[in-house]
Amino acid sequence: MADSTPTDSVSVDMDSISPSPKEHIIRTCHGSVSVAVYGDQDKPALITYPDLGLNYVSCFQGLLFCPEAYYLLLHNFCIYHISPPGHELGAAAIDPDYPILSVDDLADQIAEVLNFFGLNAVMCMGVTAGAYILTLFAMKYRQRVLGLILVSPLCKEPSWSEWLYNKVMSNLLYFYGMCGVVKEILLKRYFSKEIRGGAQLLESDIVKACRRSLDERQSLNVWRFLEAINGRPDLSEGLRKLHCRSLIFVGDMSPFHSEALHITSKLDRRFSALVEVQACGSMVTEEQPHAMLIPMEYFLMGYGLYRPSKLSVSPRSPLSPSCISPELFSPESMGLKLKPIKTRISMEL
């Protein structure tokens, strides 16, 4: 993928995308859940679910506020950002007497959200723990999922090392709150070492913003989500039965890189694709969102959901067909190695 110059970019008034979402607090059988809705609700629905400790602002803003992503996603979808319980902006602490939800409970909450909005089948996008919840949702409610876009997803039950690591973080959250050690553990989970900084490297603005976001989380609410994820079952056996198309992104520096390879090996190869993003951690949506645009464009074209706006897209835009190499229109192209991504795709578009 060639580097973009100023003349290659799309000019968009970012204030016109959506000045503010419509926030809904929806009561379900498993407690209340916050949903932020962007866009025209007559459009096809895209639901998102973030990773542990994050919400839609800290997990998806980098992708969704790219000018090119506006045309790819916001122009064609109404986006429903579902937050894990107690992860939304300004959330209060969940009543300590309320039972801890399981991953099945969280997946069932999504079905109730769709019912509330009168949605039938939806496109899904999730990051790591959120990707696991959406995959489980797709397995339980197959008729309600058009496709899955999974970023550094989890699939198997925790290994002993991950389980122990999560238990240490869980105890720190419970007894000490969102302390410095917990924030460092989470930042390593999200980002590559290059942008986290170090002795000779400055911490990037993305990481600084995420660190500030973590300060705003209610630690016991994060603890609850972590307990659910640490008790997750293995989904491997049910993946082959999924017949919705799946597009998987993973950073090659993500601690969950092997999980993404595993889930890809278990999915039906006719309907799945893997994109490995070089020099990137788990949260591709924030660290390298531009690497997601062209793979998502071709993925969504298979549904007839992406219609380029001739009046709004520059002829030299990366999303303009005239700017895309002709070889990329053929299925054979999907095995090519593209910078800064490499693809492993055997899906028929």
Describe what this molecule looks like in 3D.
- By secondary structure, the protein is α/β, with parallel strands linked by helices.
- The protein has a single domain, classed as Rossmann fold (3-Layer(aba) Sandwich).
- The protein has 13 helices and 10 strands.
- The protein has helices at 56-64, 67-74, 103-117, 129-140, 160-176, 180-190, 193-196, 205-215, 219-230, 236-239, 257-266, 284-287, 293-301, and strands at residues 22-28, 31-38, 45-49, 78-82, 122-127, 145-151, 245-251, 272-277, 337-338, 341-345.
- It has a 10-stranded mixed β-sheet, with helices on both faces.
- Helix 11 (257-266) links the parallel strand 7 and strand 8.
- The chain starts with 21 loop residues before the first strand and ends with a strand.
- Residues 1-18, 310-341 and 345-349 have low confidence and may be disordered.
- Keywords: Membrane, Transmembrane, Transmembrane helix.
- Belongs to the NDRG family.
- InterPro entries: AB_hydrolase_fold, NDRG.
- Residues 1-22 are annotated as: Disordered.
